[in-house]
UniProtKB/TrEMBL annotation:
Domain of life: Eukaryota
GO CC field: membrane
Pfam family membership, one: CRAL_TRIO
SUPFAM superfamilies linked: CRAL/TRIO domain, CRAL/TRIO N-terminal domain
CRAL-TRIO domain location: 82-244
Protein name: CRAL-TRIO domain-containing protein
GO molecular function: phosphatidylinositol bisphosphate binding
Organism field: Drosophila navojoa
PANTHER family named in the record: ALPHA-TOCOPHEROL TRANSFER PROTEIN-RELATED, CRAL-TRIO DOMAIN-CONTAINING PROTEIN
Amino acid sequence: MKLADLDEQYKRFPQIKREEMRKFVDWIHAQPHFSPQFSEGEALHFFHACKYSMEMAKQVLETNLTARTHLDDFFVNLDIESHQLKKAMKTVSIVPLPGATPEGYRVIVGKLEDLSASNFNYADVMKLYCMVFDYWMYEDGIQPGHVIVIDLKGCSLGHVARIGLLQMKKFLFYLQEAAAIRLIGFHFINIVPFMDKIMALMNPFMKKELTSILYLHNDINEFFKFVPREMMPKDYGGPLEETKVARELYYNKLIDDRKQMLEFETRHQVNEKLRPGKPKNASDLFGIEGNFKKLDID
């Protein structure tokens, strides 16, 4: 893992004053429950995502690290050699695209490769997704914005039935409250006839800010108005190598940098024993978990 060049990022975003960032980093390193190894480059993502508001950046970082500590499903045991993640790598392709949209936005695409619902584990797939995203951001540095694309081709009701409501709540909480990105668009392409079932899982946990950038595309040409065809792999009519080929680039990076990803996990968690005041747990973030059931698919 090679952290994006700091000087280059400050040059591209001159509105970020380095002296302000140093104050933010000093605050981070003064928190006893944060990792002392948390870097300026990692902190920069939060300052940028929060539009250079120091107080908001502090709040989002605290929420991020606390969530990553207690969201066992998605952020704990980031060992790419684990059986669960090896299986997830065979199940889905998660591909950050090269280049950017005309507005400068960076794009990541996720799709099924193994269409068997019995091999689909939502938590493991989302853990892999977040690992790829984290690695990508670490090396890519701050950007004007990010676009998430989910391709539903091959998705069945069997896949949807394997997504728990609490898992969906936790992921959407993280995406909306804790992720250190400026999310510009959230696109579903190749939408399915039972899209209402998927939206029934998501709607209770989406704020209006997310619904306002959520797009459902039946027509790929409509999608190309947001992400140009020239950015897309061959399986979407673009010029780039197919997603199942491109995914190997990032999966191999995760394998090669297994140790660094485990260190990344540790840096992005809190030590509750050292937290000033009362330690937090999952119920402080998400409430009581026992009342959640899977979506009933009939």
